[in-house]
Amino acid sequence: MPKQPKARKAGRPPLPKGDAKAEFLRIRVRPDERKAIESAAKSKKQSASEWIRSTLNAAL
After folding, report:
1. CA torsion sign, 43 to 45 to 49 to 52?
2. What is the pTM of this model?
3. What is the rounded CA–CA span in Å between residue 57 and residue 53?
């Protein structure tokens, strides 16, 4: 009986070593702050996470 090839796993392939984000930073914000963050991110066509990350990196 011939071997059948293994089925591929669903989802995207793993990112190269060092490219994956492995740390979480949890913060609390007021509802009005969250709206302001989401609005700023939307105006730059970014997700809130992308906008926060780029803003913090610019401050560093």
Report:
1. negative
2. 0.67
3. 6
